[in-house]
Amino acid sequence: MSAVKVGVTGAAGQIGYSILPMICSGQMLGADTKIDLALLDIPQCEDALRGVAMEINDSAFPLLNSLKYGSDPREILRDLDIIIFLGGFPRKAGMERKELLQKNMNIFKEQGTALNEVGKPTTLCLVVANPANTNCLVLAHHAPNIPRKNFTAMTRLDHNRASFQIANRVGALTIDVKNVAIWGNHSSTQYPDVNHGTVRGGAIRPAVNDDEWLNGEFISCVQKRGAAIIAARKLSSAMSAAKAAVDHVRDWYLGTKDGEWVSMAVLSDGSYGIDTGLCYSFPCTCSNREWHIVQGLDINEFSRDKMNLTKQELTEERDEAFSA
Amino acid sequence: MFKILSRTFTQHMKEPVRVVVTGGSGQIAYSLLFRIASGSLLGEHQPVILQIYDLPHMQSALKGVVMEISDGAFPLVHEIIASDTPSTVYADADYAFLVGAKPRGPGMERGDLLKQNGEIFVKVGQDLDKFAKKTVKVLAVGNPVNTNALIAMSNAPSIPKENFTAMTRLDHNRALCQLATYLNTEVHNIEKLVIWGNHSPTMFPDLTYTTLHNQKIKTKIDHIWYEKEFIPTVQQRGTAIIAARKASSAASAASAAVDHVRDWALGSNGQWVSMAVPSDLYNGEYGIPIGLIFSYPIVCANGSYQLVKDLKIDEFQHNKLRITVNELLKEKEAVVDLIRK
């Protein structure tokens, strides 16, 4: 079996440091799949990137077939099977949202343009860098040679966080919680929806038996989890973000289990009244390296309001990003 | 103390094992805990209970780490216990990664480093002795690693000596990587590389028996490269990584720790690995005095490890071994009052 070519941008950063050992130890593509790894970061991070590459080599991973790194997207992003976009412009204190959007738009325009030249029509892209959904839109916009369905953004961290909160509430294991759904933007307007999920095979709502909590504190807890971790660690949640990215790619590439779905932000096909032209998180199943939005879920009024709120934020972000 | 409790629902998995990690809020533990949680250590059918230790003033940061492990949605993590109470953390431990140690501060002499860590590891040994399972497999990762392991071992008299080891697997992996680059090959084609001695600049990376595709390479290697480039590069790799990253080599250290304990628990498939283990077990073999924790060529099988015996040692090797032995004897002398007779 030939090696799978995996690229990571922003590889010298915190999430990069966490994700690379996970990828190289077989957590993403399985214990039998070799990896050709390609790492990209900006010239200013050249030394740090070299240091990370040294450590990956020093780990003597049996599955690592080759490793290359550099700052030229046309060289590094060439002919890859999977790319995880960690690199973005971080929010600085006092930075306006418009400025953050603008700086990230420039990055993803450059990388999208490069990808359009050197990518494969089968390259699968996961955008993690925030604002993830809008960055994904920009990336896709500048890489028209690559099918729209190959561009996704990550809400798997929110999905995993929501699953844990439910598990913790009822004293179950996180893997016993299935089919929560994250709708919308990877931001504080995301909507974690438990109406179609199960814990230990039974519906979540009756198992938790506390609608007030489910409609209130649960949602805000998941939305604000990132901030809570920064408050505790004084550092952001790099490892759990990396794990979520690995989960997202693994399930996309290897398929989801029967009866189970995951949350992915994808370019909408109009499902559930969400305009095409938005990158919006939906419940999805995966097979043959393709995602499919789960159809036919009942959306009540409470959910509809939440879904509209996050849709509105995404529409504004998109308009801001593309207006310049 | 806080606990994240989860009750097992699926019945087909094995009984969980208890894995202790000390220094739980630090850099190496951050990388290590997530590797363990993913199944890198004992395979995808072995659930784990993580028992994480740090000092009282680090409990808030540790809480953040626990939150992240929980958010990692790992199927194999059945419980997470985080505490500053030894009787809780070490209770019934099956594995213990002793990552927590006092780092070298500015102006600190090596003697101070040895003594201050020595005091920590006296307590660690006593706590393991009181609370862990007698079958616990212990790996010291925090430096000075060999002497810390020795002190812990001597303060845990009811636990068999062979259960106490120290990590030279990072040096081993680094040496493999350097050699693979030099030979333009992949690491898995190389076998029988040995790291002897102390995890310190006196460590001796030995290519005397090393093979590439089962052919000995010693005569094919430029001896100048071996002495003037290979050995110093392996010895100073940690420093080189700090220079590049502006942070120390946590991820590769964690990876080596996983490799060391995994091979010990599951076997090394006939391969030689490097582990620092009690020289008491080998009665002066290779001229190494008893009473030390010393890195040797080791093969692991059936949950235990064996020394590779009957290797011929030439004068060059003998001199290198003597240097690292002497350093370890000096270290031991500096903390002799902490070593329980």
Automatic annotation (TrEMBL), chain A:
For this protein, the Enzyme Commission number is: 1.1.1.37
Q: Which keywords accompany this UniProt record?
A: NAD, Oxidoreductase, Tricarboxylic acid cycle
What Gene3D superfamilies does the annotation carry? Lactate dehydrogenase/glycoside hydrolase, family 4, C-terminal, NAD(P)-binding Rossmann-like Domain
A GO BP term here is: tricarboxylic acid cycle
Chain ranges of the Lactate/malate dehydrogenase N-terminal domain: 4-151
Binding of substrate occurs at 91, 97, 130, 161
What are the recorded GO MF terms, alphabetically? Answer: L-malate dehydrogenase (NAD+) activity
* Similarity remark: Belongs to the LDH/MDH superfamily. MDH type 2 family.
- What is the recorded name of this protein? Malate dehydrogenase
Organism taxonomic ancestry: Eukaryota, Sar, Alveolata, Ciliophora, Postciliodesmatophora
TrEMBL record, chain B:
**Claim: Phosphoprotein is one of the keywords in the record:** no
User: Which GO terms are recorded in the biological process aspect for this UniProt protein?
Assistant: malate metabolic process; tricarboxylic acid cycle
Highest lineage ranks of the organism? Eukaryota, Sar, Alveolata, Ciliophora, Postciliodesmatophora
Indicate the segments forming the Lactate/malate dehydrogenase N-terminal domain, all copies: 17-164
The active site is formed by 199 (proton acceptor)
Q: Which domain of life is it from?
A: Eukaryota
Specify whether Amino-acid biosynthesis is a keyword of the entry: no
- Quote the InterPro entries the UniProt record gives: L-lactate/malate_DH, Lactate/malate_DH_C, Lactate/malate_DH_N, Lactate_DH/Glyco_Ohase_4_C, Malate_DH_AS, Malate_DH_type2, NAD(P)-bd_dom_sf
Its name, as the record gives it, is Malate dehydrogenase
Family (UniProt): Belongs to the LDH/MDH superfamily. MDH type 2 family.
A GO molecular function for this record? Answer: L-malate dehydrogenase (NAD+) activity
Q: Which reactions fall under this protein's catalytic activity? A: (S)-malate + NAD(+) = oxaloacetate + NADH + H(+)
Q: Give the Gene3D superfamilies listed for this entry.
A: Lactate dehydrogenase/glycoside hydrolase, family 4, C-terminal, NAD(P)-binding Rossmann-like Domain
Q: Which SUPFAM superfamilies match?
A: LDH C-terminal domain-like (SSF56327), NAD(P)-binding Rossmann-fold domains (SSF51735)
Q: Which residues bind substrate?
A: 104, 110, 143, 174
Annotated EC: 1.1.1.37
Residue limits of the Lactate/malate dehydrogenase C-terminal domain?
A: 168-337
Keywords (alphabetical) are:
NAD, Oxidoreductase, Tricarboxylic acid cycle
Q: Which residues bind NAD(+)?
A: 54, 117, 141-143
